[in-house]
Amino acid sequence: MSYAAILSFILFTFAFTYLLFKLFFHPKQKHKKPPGPPTLPIIGNLHMLGKLPHRTLQSLSKKYGPIMSLQLGQVPTVVISSSKTAELFLKTHDLVFASRPKIQASKLMSYGSKGVGFAEYGPYWRSMRKLCTLKLLSASKVEMFASIRKEELGVLVESLKKAALVGEVVDVSEAVENLVEDIMYKMILGRSKYEQFDLKGLVQKAMALFGAFNIADYIAWLGPLDLQRNLDSQYQELNICMQYQVIVWQVMENLNSFKKDN
């Protein structure tokens, strides 16, 4: 049998089993949901989002109101399109909705969703935030790198002077972007971006994978089938956690060598 035929058979079997479970074994939900469009088995309302989901949601809100419910695969979702209602979720009751959803990318590339950007809100996340605030982002730590910022800013000013003397056009946005990048590299790694570390490339790859649509985030049991062909292997190949560890180890080795030499 071809791959397509096997895949179709597996999907049909899963769909049939799911429908039987929903019809005969799944208990009726007692809580009342906001109004929303009718759903399809398995995929729910995923088919309705299209290529411009923000416009689709805006159109649906006109029909179902500022608070509506969608079923994105297996994920029940409440959509808010009113600023006053959004304030209740994001400000008044923000602690209830503070946690990020656990997606496959964060599990595979953020130590099982343990990074400060993806960890569930609670004691662990609060301790992580406290650690970052006191050890990385405090006023004394920021001031510690003032000389680096001054040095890199001086380099930028000199390059602008040279460009002005010869009448060369300067892309200011690109120049400022490079300035910030150079400062960050030296603050984080103690090295120029041109030396041995491709941190920017690593972050760009990670952001692309974090933002990619993954059907397994909405229908979990489809994850092992890898329907999007090699998306899971891209997570494993990139292996953000290990590459970050390698960078940290290299930085620590360089610091230890510097201390020994001095």
UniProtKB/TrEMBL annotation:
Keywords: Heme, Iron, Membrane, Metal-binding, Monooxygenase, Oxidoreductase, Transmembrane, Transmembrane helix. GO terms for cellular component: membrane. It comes from Pisum sativum (Garden pea). Belongs to the cytochrome P450 family. This is Cytochrome P450. InterPro entries: Cyt_P450, Cyt_P450_E_grp-I, Cyt_P450_sf. It is found in: Membrane. It comes from the Eukaryota. Its cofactor is heme. The chain crosses the membrane at residues 6-25. GO terms for molecular function: heme binding; iron ion binding; monooxygenase activity; oxidoreductase activity, acting on paired donors, with incorporation or reduction of molecular oxygen. Its main location: membrane. Gene3D superfamilies: Cytochrome P450 (1.10.630.10).
